UniProtKB/TrEMBL annotation:
CDD domains noted in UniProt: CMPK
Pfam families membership: Cytidylate_kin (PF02224)
One Gene Ontology term from the biological process aspect of the record: pyrimidine nucleotide metabolic process
UniProt source species: Pseudochrobactrum asaccharolyticum
InterPro entries noted in UniProt: Cytidylate_kin (IPR003136), Cytidylate_kinase_dom (IPR011994), P-loop_NTPase (IPR027417)
Protein name, UniProt field: Cytidylate kinase
Family: Belongs to the cytidylate kinase family. Type 1 subfamily.
Lineage: Bacteria, Pseudomonadati, Pseudomonadota, Alphaproteobacteria, Hyphomicrobiales
Alphabetic keyword roster: ATP-binding, Cytoplasm, Kinase, Nucleotide-binding, Transferase
Keyword field contains Electron transport: no
Primary subcellular site in the record, as a coarse category: cytoplasm
E.C. number: 2.7.4.25
Compartments in which it is found: Cytoplasm
Record gene name: cmk
Gene Ontology MF terms: ATP binding; CMP kinase activity; dCMP kinase activity
Amino acid sequence: MQNKAFIIAIDGPAASGKGTLARNLASHYGFHHLDTGLTYRAVAKALIDQGLPLDDEAIAARVAQELDLKGLDRTVLSAHEIGEAASKVAVMPEVRRALVEAQRKFADNLPGTVLDGRDIGTVVCPDARVKLYITASAEVRAERRFNEMRAKNADADYNAVLDDLKRRDERDMNRSASPLKPASDAHLIDTSKMDIEAAFLEAKKLIDAALRS
Ligand code: DC
């Protein structure tokens, strides 16, 4: 019986497919899953709901310290404005410190966990047993996001989606606190020309090998 959680760390830019992959892997291996982006989104939403400023680090950090990971609702938190606000609070080191502490506690759940985000392999779980960095070209990611939006709302605009993704990449990759980058020991999976099943099989191969070792 293993007494240490088997941790799978998945990082990558917005709309790379990492969220779906993380959910599928967690379900396949019977592991707990945390989309860490939701934790940043939940802090942003709590600030907005309480009429608090998005640019006051002490206030945002207090909200982050009080966050309950059990109450994260993907449907509510996936709104576009919340994503924008989340990328602003995510640049604050004190917010990151509080959320990373909660994420690390979650990561220790037995028998294993899958965490996805931007800094899992580099900062949150540097000792994860498997680290994956999922990427795809900005154009392919924008097309996926556009098709998702199109299914719900006929006036989605591809160029606006692409510009938005590029702006978000820029903010995530160039911030000073925990910028998005692959860990030196991460396996890179480029999903530009791969469907979700192919990405799953590639990840599964790497994880099965780590589970055997
Ligand atoms: O993946 P997402 O769109 O739900 O993430 C929302 C914001 O939170 C995004 O700007 C990146 C940021 N984030 C982060 O800085 N670190 C993480 N581990 C996860 C998300």
